[in-house]
């Protein structure tokens, strides 16, 4: 393989997954660590990568899909955990609930006790394995194509399963929110799944920290008027709070520990 081809493939992986590791690249391209380090340094000089310990990460503006799950779970973690604590009392005993692939929703899953009697459906292996340790919670995991960035299942099989279900309450995250209440996602497969969940739930709880406010992602997913309860943190702009109130969406604001 030519060096130019290798650099192009590394750049594509950075854009898709958000990060690369030297050891994995060595195995993939059958070259030495020194060669890969030179490649990453060259990409950094072109502002196409940011060198990190053991590899490189993509500059934020170049990532064209969702960041890897392991990266997202550590971002704004205090806010996510505080939001999850506010969401916990909203889960009624004996309910049929849906937990999506959001890392904020995963923080909620970790808070559930072994005493709560629930049926939880999720599209995410990480959340399913976490909840499956609770003996009183029945867990159903959607089938379908397993996505590498989120450990979630999507596609025709997952959507066909959802068409047979109704939920008392669903807990969702979102990639983007505008100040006037529009929800968005960069993913076409996520769009279809989340639209189905919203339509088949008596109550929808949106869990999103204030960093999600800003420029919308590729696809308009819905509007805050379709959401029963919005849970966020105190960094949210006043204009968004007023938008929720105008659309009769309950808004809960978490205090963030310092």
Structure explained in plain terms:
Keywords: DNA-binding, Transcription, Transcription regulation. InterPro entries: Carb_Metab_HTH_regulators, DeoR-like_C, DeoR_HTH, NagB/RpiA_transferase-like, Tscrpt_reg_HTH_DeoR_CS, WH-like_DNA-bd_sf, WH_DNA-bd_sf. One of its GO terms (molecular function) is DNA-binding transcription factor activity. Residues 3-58 form the HTH deoR-type domain. It holds the Pfam family DeoRC. The protein is 38% helix and 24% strand. The termini are far apart. The protein has 258 residues and is of the alpha/beta class. The chain contains ten helices and 15 strands. Strand 10 and strand 11 form a beta hairpin. It has a seven-stranded parallel β-sheet with strand order 6-5-4-9-12-14-15, with helices on both faces. The longest helix has 15 residues, at 3-17. Helix 2 (22-29) packs across helix 3 and helix 5 (77-87) crosses helix 6 (103-111).
